[in-house]
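Researcher: Sequence recovery benchmark, item below. Answer with residues only.
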């Protein structure tokens, strides 16, 4: 009996122990040679490929590895290097590659500033934005994707190279100079894509994964025509099978144009779309790849639900035209649970990191065609345990949320009345000054925190150290006549983790690192259950700082949407409900800060714009409940207390009306 074909769209590339991060930073400091850096990358790729082969994945990806970012890699492959870097048009070397990503500061007069970096769709991963202007040309300028295919081949592993598709590459780039329409570059771009496919074909490649996540966006008629033109052009130039891959959403009104493309398979994100509906008009000449293993979160797959989807698809299309995959690249997941020795055992059995997701993928591929093994029963037991666990479900929290009334979202008086009271109370100058809140986490601060964690610094010694830091911070602000002071946040490790560690419903990993960009890795908290506050979280340090000055001291909190967005969030209830639970916990903290004499309180919502759904039709629902969450967090205080917020990294035009 033949299992369903399986694929993995990409795997984490940082290494189990963040080997890539360490090697990159050593290389940038000049302590590691380029050859040594390449050797580290080669070892990570080898481990990944051999793991996927050992587990039985049918289509193993290559060219999903990157030393910094896959979009930057595509720019190098296409020879699209901004002219300020004086690129000659030959192969992009490592210094040029990293200069585009990080800037070149060796000569302050060369103006070789880094390319822009922004979020990859609605993830917390950042990519290097391609730049297009009237001088942009394309030329095959990197051998990386070909060398990595040959590298795997030498190990006895046949891979399916991954390319960012031409439409998405143009779509995620930005215009500069006098170029008014980036899609005018499509014809020139397709010439180089054809060269890439031709070279792959000469190496014996039979299948290529074309990542086109932009196919799930709101597209104009022109963009749909560009998508159509791109694949009609490429299909006529090669015998290689093109596998069209979408993720992060559903096709909706783009379905007709995508389904008509001359490609061998189309991948649909089953974690964010109704596959049964998508199959209604699925073309008879293509394989449907169902992305059912969630690459964006860390919870075990519900086998019963996934098998139901797969069996319906098989009934409709036949086994030969159904394949199973991850919903997106697994680079958005931590690598493995194997080394997590401190997680609660019950919580750990509900989790699935990248390596475990691969195992789920292969188990489901055999279960879907009728093979029986104990993976199904084990999964059913874990799902049942999670559904009924007292760890997850706190009836007091659920009851409190159910009891929230409309008036809980509003302050006592209207804004104009509050404003007048606050003006009388604070008597600020016409342009009062404050800061965002956090002062630098210097090497000395980080060293003290590490010493406290290791036990080489006692609790009393650490507290004294932090008090001295706060005193210096307050004194400095007074000396330059800041109007609203902050305490500096020296006690905080991270603006989300610090609060998560003090809230019920949060868990933390030891090694759950995920790449954010380049060598920057983050370790998101896990929201596994109902959220509530154990005790005041910030009152002690805010009131200590206030005791040092007669100026107004600002309380500093992270908002509920940002805590949600920068965590791995439970998937067994709507995100809105989890956000409102966090909002109630923050509300308790706001009220306690006010009682303790803190009369200016800032609630940071850096991720409010980031949380916007990909499709504009879905924005209003999200904006309504995200703004409600902020109001619920802040509405428990008197008219005299002033609420601030801070939103960084945001396209404000998208959210300003809601704010």
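Model:
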């Amino acid at each position: 009996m033949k299992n369903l074909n399986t694929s993995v769209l990409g795997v984490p590339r940082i290494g189990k122990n963040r080997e890539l991060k360490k090697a990159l930073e050593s290389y940038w400091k000049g302590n590691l040679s380029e050859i040594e850096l390449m050797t580290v990358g080669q070892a990570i790729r080898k481990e990944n490929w051999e793991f996927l082969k050992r587990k039985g994945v049918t289509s193993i990806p290559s060219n999903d590895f990157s030393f910094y970012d896959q979009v930057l890699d595509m720019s190098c492959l296409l020879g699209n290097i901004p002219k300020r870097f004086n690129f000659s048009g030959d192969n992009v070397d490592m210094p040029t590659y990293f200069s585009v990503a990080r800037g070149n500061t060796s000569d302050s007069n060369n103006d070789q500033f880094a390319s822009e970096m922004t979020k990859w769709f609605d993830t917390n991963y950042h990519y290097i934005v391609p730049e297009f202007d009237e001088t942009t040309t394309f030329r095959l300028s990197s051998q990386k994707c070909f060398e990595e295919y040959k590298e795997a081949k030498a190990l006895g592993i046949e891979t399916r190279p991954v390319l960012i598709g031409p439409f998405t590459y143009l779509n995620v780039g930005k215009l500069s100079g006098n170029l008014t329409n980036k899609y005018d570059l499509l014809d020139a771009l397709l010439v180089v894509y054809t060269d890439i496919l031709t070279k792959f074909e000469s190496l014996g490649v039979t299948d290529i994964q074309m990542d086109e996540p932009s196919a799930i966006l709101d597209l104009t008629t022109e963009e749909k025509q560009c998508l159509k033109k791109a694949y009609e052009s490429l299909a006529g130039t090669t015998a290689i099978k093109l596998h069209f891959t979408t993720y992060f959403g559903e096709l909706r009104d783009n379905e007709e144009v995508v389904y008509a493309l001359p490609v061998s398979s189309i991948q649909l994100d089953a974690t964010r779309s109704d596959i049964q509906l998508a199959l209604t008009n699925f073309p008879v000449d293509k394989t449907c790849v169902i992305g059912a293993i969630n690459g964006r979160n860390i919870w075990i797959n519900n086998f019963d639900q996934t098998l139901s989807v797969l069996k319906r698809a098989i009934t409709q299309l036949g086994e030969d035209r159904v394949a199973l995959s991850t919903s997106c690249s697994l680079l958005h997941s931590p690598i493995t649970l194997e080394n997590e020795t401190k997680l609660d055992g019950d919580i750990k059995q509900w989790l699935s990191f990248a390596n475990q997701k691969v195992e789920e993928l292969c188990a489901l591929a055999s279960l879907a065609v009728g093979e029986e093994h104990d993976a199904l029963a084990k999964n059913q037991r874990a799902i049942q345990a999670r559904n009924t666990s007292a760890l997850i479900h706190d009836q007091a929290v659920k009851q409190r949320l159910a009891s929230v009334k409309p008036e809980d979202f509003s302050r006592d008086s209207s804004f104009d009345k509050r404003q007048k009271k606050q003006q009388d109370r604070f008597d600020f100058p016409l342009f009062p000054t404050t800061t965002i809140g956090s002062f630098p986490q210097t090497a000395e601060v980080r060293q003290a925190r590490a010493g406290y964690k290791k036990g080489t610094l006692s609790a009393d010694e650490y507290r004294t150290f932090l008090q001295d830091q706060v005193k210096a911070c307050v004194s400095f602000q007074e000396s330059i006549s800041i109007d609203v002071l902050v305490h500096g946040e020296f006690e905080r490790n991270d603006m989300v983790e610090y609060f998560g560690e003090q809230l019920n419903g949060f868990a933390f990993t030891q090694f759950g690192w995920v790449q954010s960009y380049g060598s920057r890795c983050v370790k998101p908290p896990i929201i596994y259950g109902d959220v509530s506050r154990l005790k005041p979280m910030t009152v002690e340090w805010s009131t200590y700082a206030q005791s040092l000055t007669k100026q107004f001291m600002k309380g500093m909190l992270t908002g509920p949407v940002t805590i949600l967005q920068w965590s791995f969030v439970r998937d067994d209830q709507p995100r809105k409900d989890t956000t409102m639970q966090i909002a109630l916990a923050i509300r308790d903290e706001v009220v306690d800060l006010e009682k303790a004499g803190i009369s200016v309180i800032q609630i940071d919502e850096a991720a409010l714009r980031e949380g916007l759904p990909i499709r504009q039709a879905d924005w209003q629902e999200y904006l309504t409940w995200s703004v409600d969450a902020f109001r619920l967090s802040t509405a428990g205080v008197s008219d005299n207390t002033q609420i601030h917020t801070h939103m960084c990294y945001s396209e404000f035009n998208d959210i300003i009306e809601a704010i």
